[in-house]
Amino acid sequence: MTQFSLSQRVKELRTRKGISQELLAEETGLSLRTIQRIENDETVPRGDSLKRLAQALNTSPDEIIDWKIQEDSNYLTIMNLGALTFLFFPLLGILIPLILWISKRDKIQSVNELGKSILNFQISWTLAIFFYSIFLVIGIFSGFLLSEDPNENPLPILLPIIGLYLYNIFMIILNTVRVYNKKTFHYKPALQILK
Fold first, then answer.
1. Which residue in 14, 63, 85, 122 has the most C-beta neighbors within 10 A?
2. Dmax over Cα atoms in the chain, in whole Å?
3. Pair 101, 143 in one domain
4. Within a 10 A sphere around the Cβ of 9, how many other Cβ atoms?
């Protein structure tokens, strides 16, 4: 493991916890200059300093030292395909990728970006389905969507929902293939809820 990776890990853990270098120095009992030198790659914490850092960052010394980001296109593929669970229940298309994202976002390369992209898309898609369903319910109960003719075809009313489902399936399959082939992924359109 390189010093750069260790310094990057310390900085990443500190920013994730939402504390400044000054506060980390205070919590560890190390000097501010020592924290700065660790994060700037100028020194490697050992022994007691490493233990203090780990305790202040709510982790173990081994996790700081052994941390590395791996490449795992299989995990990225599984994460993409996990979004297909929306077919069983729309919220599963958010929940399964969320669980996969949270469990590996700092361990596997591109999981953080892919997870945010999938979640933004699935949340946007679920909101579109929800609001269209509300529109349908209001329209049916108010009588302006269905006529009195029992032989009228309800397909035109359901076409937007069918289209949204097909588009979601298409985007998941397209991006699964792109990730598998190590190309960039694009889940569009999506609200930027997670940045």
1. 122
2. 81
3. yes
4. 22
